[in-house]
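Q: Hi! New to this. If I give you a protein sequence and the SMILES for zinc ion, can you show me the bound structure?
A: Yes, paste them in.
Q: Okay, here:
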Amino acid sequence: MAKYDTVIRNGQVADGTGRKLFAADVALKGDRIAAVETPGTLKGDNEIDARGKVVAPGFIDVHTHDDTALIDNPTMAMKASQGVTTVVCGNCGASAAPFTRSDIGHFLTLIVKKQANIAKTFGEFATKVEAAKPAINGAFLIGHSTLRMNAMGDDLARQASASEIGVMRDLLDQSLEQGAIGLSSGLFYPPAMAASTDEVAEIAKPLGKWGGVYTAHMRDEGDHILKSMDETFEIGRRAGAEVIVSHHKCSGRPNFGRMKETLPKFTEAMKQQQIAFDVYPYVAGSTILRKEMLDRADKVLITWSDTVADVSGRDLKDIAKEMGCSIYDAADRLQPAGAIYFMMDEKDVQAAMAHPGAMIGSDGIPFDTHPHPRLWGTFPRVLGHYSRDLKLFPLEDAVRRMTSYSAQRFHLAKRGEVKPGFYADLCIFDPATVIDTATFDKPISPAKGIDTVLCNGAIVWRDGKPGGGRSGRALKRQDLQAEAKASA
Ligand SMILES: [Zn+2]
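A: Thanks. Here is the predicted structure of the protein with zinc ion bound:
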């Protein structure tokens, strides 16, 4: 018997750190990378030929709403097909746990949709995820809006009282103890809009104690974005938590070009405290359908509607014309619904992505009938379109922004590098052909050029289809910290 389970031969390794590509064989034993050595020197029971390909760490999708998708859709083809081996869930203030009462279920939770799989405690939710044996790993944030619904029911259009803040803080504390990795807020959305800075800063206090991160879909990504950045940074400082600004964008035509203001502001603030942000590689965003957002978008496409049939994928203007009403009235009639909003400037998107503080997150919404193409296309698009074709950054740096840097920012110990002792999360891709194929017209379409994807040593994507591997895990804070400590 050979010393190793699998050897990946003849590939060029992009190890995740940004180091230049180098020729090496990568050996796996169990769920770990066991050796990275000179080509031809390692022997395995199985071999994967990676000639002409790049062997990279599996990508970490730092911004997702895949909480319940890991349970309902455990092959996770929309992510495994892109080379993603870990998803960070519970973003934008909406998480699938904890739900301590049954009389709640605001609209926003439709983002994590399947109500059957929400759970009373985070611990219970993590157990459900593991029982589902997903193909890839999940790490989980606790949503501030979710906490609000627990403490305040449907009475959300006001500030929380001191005792309600106490309830939310305790629930966060308990969830972090059970393994959540941080708190997310979505002050942009109705369930949390009325929350003050003080409310979030008070609730966030347990982050300091447990070493959790704070991610923010900021209150305003348009006209008042600079003020919102200050608010976000302040909450992080007061909680003693590292900050990650979600899907950084300057939204709405009047704000095009304002990366010239926000990026230097990030650079300055990063000297004072730990701050990073994520970006998706598109000029359109997507979320629930909101009338307030229609004016800032050049074009709006409907992604789903629970009340009107056959509107998914269509332009709201055309739907309104057919209904013989304004787009605002049409939006009312479609509710509850989701939409894609074309509201960013291409130059801004590129500037954000190339900033030293930027990592890649898809923000894909897994249950939409006609989803934004980012759900299936984000990572190959960054590699093929932005790195190879537009030369926005070298391939090694593109990989770093999807792997080691992301793992460091979310404290995902032993993930994100091709290095002995690290978990065998790997993506083997063809650098000459890798590209997204998902479009706004045809969004459900696997990328090209992704050869083989492994998660914890098991093949989860190969030759254009799921590989059968189901060894993904719920990555829990305490396990990650123990792992980091052991290797320190
Ligand atoms: Zn968001």
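A: The chain has a mean pLDDT of 95. Let me know if you'd like me to explain how to read the tokens.
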